[in-house]
Amino acid sequence: MVAYDPSKITYGELLGVFWRQINPTDPDGQFVDRGPQYRSAVFYNSEEQKKLAERSKKELALSGRFKEPVVTE
Asked: Residue 34: phi, psi to the nearest 5?
């Protein structure tokens, strides 16, 4: 479990770290860990965080960094 402390890192910064640590194009897990329990997902606690998460996912998808679509929930 990750405990989010907004006094140490902003939600936007946390999203940036998250996207660099996973493969957002893999619908079946992460790296050698396979199965639905290993699928990546972004969680939020407010409408503002939801908007930031959706925007960061869209920006990543449009960045051209990946050939496959971003499928992280």
From this structure: -115, 150
d(CA 12, CA 64): 20
From the number of C-beta atoms within 10 Å of its C-beta (0-12, 13-18, 19+), residue 14 rates as buried
Of 49, 51, 40, nearest to 6 by C-alpha is 49
Residue 33, classed as helix, strand or coil, is strand
8-29 pLDDT tens trace: 999 999 999 999 999 999 999 9
In whole angstroms, give the CA distance from residue 17 to residue 64.
Answer: 18
Q: What is the pTM of this model?
A: 0.86
Residues whose CB is less than 8 angstroms from the CB of residue 70 and which lie 6 or more positions away in sequence, other chains included: 24, 25, 57, 60, 61
